[in-house]
Amino acid sequence: KHLSVFAFAPIPLLIKLGTLINDIYTCQINQKVRNPDTWKLDDDTTEVKYTVVEPENNHKTVALNISLSASITNNRITEVLGDECDIYTITIDNPFNDYLKSKRHLEDFSIIIRQLLNKVKAQYGEKTPLHIFPAMPIAKAVELGRVWMPKADMPLFLYDQNTANSGFSKAIEIVNK
Length: 177
What we know:
Layout: E1 2-5, H1 11-21, E2 26-29, E3 51-53, E4 61-67, H2 74-81, E5 85-91, H3 103-124, E6 130-135, H4 138-147, E7 156-162, E8 167-174
Parallel strand pairs: 1-2, 4-5, 4-6, 6-7
Antiparallel strand pairs: 3-5, 7-8
Helix pairs in contact: 1-4, 3-4
């Protein structure tokens, strides 16, 4: 009846985990906080302002740059997908790997990512894959997967950063069933 999730894995795997849990189940997603060293998100109601930057062009390939725990420059995405790519970006004022400390931050992210997925799907169609380049906290990766609707949303192509592989490479494809 209730899941408590303490996940720790590469971000694409955490997004995939979230799709398996989905948002139907009552679930508490926990985040490893570095300072102070804990897994407990507090009840702080301080708002984190998310900024969504929309592309100016209209190409057939669409990507989502999630720059929350670190900044991803768009040229790192176009190196993988080419210049004929529309890139949406969701970010905060100062991306930082330990900014997620509150339950509200996670809840607000769920709302904004759900709205963004709907907007992108309306513009590009439900069959167009959404290429996701994530730099995000682990709890938000799970939450991203939870809000994705397997019967209605676009396929997700998830990329992982690894300097040994010279940058981002496709790790997982999540397709509609």
